[in-house]
Amino acid sequence: MGFIRNRKSLTGLIILGFFVLIAIIGPWIAPYDPDALGDATLAPPSPEHWLGTTQVGQDILSQLLVGTRGVLVVGFVSGAIATFLAVIVGVTAGYVGGLTDEILSALANIFLVIPALPLIIIITSQLPSAGEFTTAAVISITAWAWGSRIMRAQTLSLRNRDFIQASRANGESLWRIVTVEILPNLTAIIASSFVGTVTFAILSEITLAFIGVASISDWNWGTILFWAQSNQALARGAWWWFVPAGLCIALVGMALALINFGIDEYVSPRLRTTAARSRDLKRLGITPRVGFTPVARGHLAPPKPRRRPKPHEPVPAIDTSFAMIEEEANR
Amino acid sequence: MDDPQPLWVQYWNYIGRILRGDFGLSFTYYPTPVSEVIAQALPWTIGLVGIATLLSFIIGTSVGVLAGWRRGSWIDGVLPVATFFSAVPYFWLGLIAIMIFAVWIPIFPASGGYAWGAIPGFNIEFMGSVLYYGILPAVTIILSSVAGWILGMRNMMVTVSSEDFVTVAHAKGLKERTVMVGYAARNAVLPQISGFALALGFIVGGTLVTEIVFSYPGIGFVLFQAVNAKDYPLMQAIFLVITIAVLVANLLADVLYVVLDPRTRQD
User: Fold this and answer.
1) pTM (2 d.p.)
2) Is B33 helix (H, G, I), strand (E, B) or coil?
3) Does B40 touch chain A (CB under 8 A)?
4) Mean pLDDT over all residues of chain A?
5) Contact B84 A250 (CB under 8 A)
6) Dihedrals phi, psi of A86, to nearest 5 degrees
7) Closest Cα of chain A to B256: distance in Å?
8) Where is the secretion signal located (chain A) (predicted)?
């Protein structure tokens, strides 16, 4: 499958897989209890404590290992809930049309414009106990709108394609058309929307923990940063306290971004071919220029003839960029 | 608290008071009215977040134009770096910036909006101090938000530059630069602008946290204090102000879109 063979998405999947593994086995392989106080206080990395210790002698590596689970659980749970909402709202709006579409689109636009993070901060701070699942729920309520907009645009363009028309003429039920004909064609977009939402959810969750709004009794990477910040780790030069957590966040974020690039290149062949071809041309000593067809005798394989997409496989020319959405929105 | 009036009457009165600019008294800064607290913080946020976001958009779009146009050149090397910075939370980049440029090499201040000695007002000393204190937070915001604009613009450039009108422009013998800026970029920037309007809510949220890290005297820092003190009137008002600011910016982006795209003016 092209998506797996794509170098970017493969790298992303490997990094993400590593963190998923840590999330599962983290609490067992952690060398210390993350809450346990120790004698070595604010110690830099050493053989006993690979990533150093906090002000009260807690082992930072153990906090990091134990905290991975919370980060990924909140990320994936909110990603799943938000994507589910996005599919329901987006596909309904796109397929049913009319007044329903107007109302749902207006709702999505409102949620899109509301600054999500301040809203999440305010809601979470007013809830009595903000555990992991509460946080996930609040994040997903604010994060579904973007996906639903893309889903709607794509459903609109699918709705009038021949194979949908044909199944409608065949008298297939609405449920069957949506689940069997439309949803499979949205797979790539749903996946990309899910990955994007997970990124957003992880960043929001860590921010919440960092500013001390979410419960600070559960360990996650944001909690580590919260304690580092409130104990003046910066001024004391204790870089080992907050650098590893941030790097982990960046790695997970990058892995998700790479997966999304892979999906983008998979659905939008223009992004893929141009990147690959310019690399090939460089190897042959030709400077690629836009709008010119390079002639190289016998080195480059002739382009493969384009196949027509069958109804059940993803339509290759789907462009998830804004141009598409705008075009649909203006119609 | 023990208001005998029904809820809807209270709500109606509340809306009325908001329209008159009366948000009640802040708990944290008691007895200062909320509107006054916000009026003091807002210019800082608009100055820092506004300018940094605009700069980031302009820089990111320009780099994106080049990256999309000269594919396979050294500019492609920017992409992985940009991806890394976009994956890092704003506040963490702020922490690192403070560590390097305020603790290890103390050339910039770690927190605050201006020097202790400076007297707020339109004098050179104060303005200079504001600029000096603003550099580190601004660079942090730009670094962490620029990647999105680079990637978006690059992908649009890739899509647009294989259109026929670009080939025709080349065939006419127009200068490379003219084709790149006037033909390809001119069209590729349109979705970028509507994207700017939509992404603003996300960006503003992130930049507010930057203010918290730098203890910058803006809306984000006040919101942080309000949340910790359960100062509901202040929180409500701040959220309202942020939302209105984002809406206004959206309106401006829409107007700009109409100016740039003649097709939207035809009907």
Assistant:
1) 0.80
2) strand
3) no
4) 79
5) yes
6) -65, -40
7) 15
8) none
